[in-house]
Amino acid sequence: MSSTPIRHPGLNLGHAHAEAHEASESLVFGFWVFMMSDLIIFGLLFATYVTMLGGTAGGPGPGELFELKSAFIETSLLLVSSFTFGMASLALKYRTDRKVLVGWLVVTLLLGLAFLGHELYDFHKMFTEGGVPSRSGFLSAFFALVPLHGLHVTAASIWLIALLGQIAVHGLDTQTKTGLMRLAILWHFLDVVWIGIFSLVYLGGTA
Amino acid sequence: MSHRQLSDEEAREKAQELRSYCWGFGLAAVLTLIPFGLAAFTQIATATLYWVIGVCGVIQIVVHFRFFLHITLARNKREDLQLILFTVLILTIMVGGTLWILFNLYYRMMPSMIP
């Protein structure tokens, strides 16, 4: 097994980053508590969505509004971005130069922004087909759940840009490292929530 | 020099972690492709398809927790796991309760709301 004592969820930095490794134990655990409470919010919005599935009030339903192809593209973008963030975490742990780390982070950011762009395009198409939040209980529940995930991705992208700035200005100090550890957890977590969204909302809706 | 001077142990750990991310990515990709492929290209019964989507989704969530978030059953990380289990307990009570009460109401008072 690995020699690093495992202290918190996500990739552990280990001996070579002793100070950041110590600091991240409580920081990452605290962030993990927040992540789990966020999971409860998403879980309940999923439940609300399911109870509202029948409430289309004569408006457009899941069969008319959702497209499997765009859901698949968004899923792929998010899954690949999760992997590239994993590569960034490894570069942070094992390399001293910042080029590889920053490279992976920029790729992750671009994938996240592509996801957001595609999602906004999707919502725009839904709007032109009459799928606005005020149309029915079903659409209200949809626009409470899916854009909330989108807002999380937006916030994570802004945080990533801020961290890139921190790397540029302060270099890889303890604060930057622990920030990256926490953002990694948020990023992977958002991909987990998306599994629920594409399974329940998109695949369940078009099946 | 781009790499830190890695000890043998660290090099092994690095290879192991890289393998873990690659496995996670591969498994997640397969578990995504199965339900999307079935939904897009086949005409299997809807009930079967729902089951496949559900089972693949749950396995994929476990894969993400294990390979990307590094949550395992190891003894030294019990607190994180306990927090997840507590969250799952709360979710089961609240989500299960919501579905139970509302669908019971629909059944008795608004049958049109049952999809």
Automatic annotation (TrEMBL), chain A:
Q: Known InterPro entries for this protein?
A: Cyt_c/ubiquinol_Oxase_su3 (IPR024791), Cyt_c_oxidase-like_su3 (IPR000298), Cyt_c_oxidase_su3-like_sf (IPR035973), Cyt_c_oxidase_su3_a-hlx (IPR013833)
The Heme-copper oxidase subunit III family profile domain covers: 1-206
Membrane topology designation:
Multi-pass membrane protein
Q: Which UniProt keywords apply?
A: Cell membrane, Membrane, Transmembrane, Transmembrane helix
Principal location listed in the UniProt entry: membrane
Mark the transmembrane ranges. Answer: 27-51, 71-92, 99-118, 138-164, 185-205
What subcellular compartments does it reside in?
Answer: Cell membrane
Q: Look up keyword Cell membrane and say if it applies.
A: yes
Top-rank taxon = Bacteria
PROSITE patterns reported for this sequence: COX3 (PS50253)
Q: Which PANTHER family match?
A: CYTOCHROME BO(3) UBIQUINOL OXIDASE SUBUNIT 3, CYTOCHROME C OXIDASE SUBUNIT III
Q: Which family does it belong to?
A: Belongs to the cytochrome c oxidase subunit 3 family.
Recorded protein name is Cytochrome c oxidase subunit 3
Species per Swiss-Prot/TrEMBL record: Salinicola lusitanus
